[in-house]
Amino acid sequence: MFKFIIDRNEKFISNMQWYDIGLVKLSVFIITLLLAKYVTILLQAPWFWYVLLFLVVSVRPYYLAFKKS
Q1: How far apart are CA 39 and CA 32, in angstroms?
Q2: How far apart, in whole angstroms, are the C-alpha atoms of residue 20 and residue 62?
Q3: What is the pLDDT of residue 67?
Q4: Domains of the chain, residue spans
Q5: DSSP 8-state symbol, 43
Q6: CB 35 within 8 Å of CB 42
Q7: Phi first, then psi: what are they for 16, rounded to 5°?
Q8: Per-residue confidence in pLDDT tens, the chain, 69 aa
C-alpha cells in the first residue's frame, strides 16, 4: 500500500513543471495566512517556538540538498 502511494507521488511530482511547484508553495503560504488569521492562538506563541519548529522541519530537506552523492 505504501509503495503504491510513494510511486504515485513520485509520478505526480515528475509530471509537474517548475511553475507548478511555485504555485504549490504559494498555495501553502496562503493557507498558512488563513490559519493565522482565524486561529489566533498560533500567533501567541513566543518567537523561539517558531525557530525550533523551523529547525525541526527543515533539517531533512537541507541535509538532502547539501549531502554529497
Answers
A1: 10
A2: 21
A3: 79
A4: 2-66
A5: G
A6: yes
A7: -85, 150
A8: 667 767 776 666 677 777 887 888 899 999 988 988 898 887 888 999 999 999 999 998 888 778 776
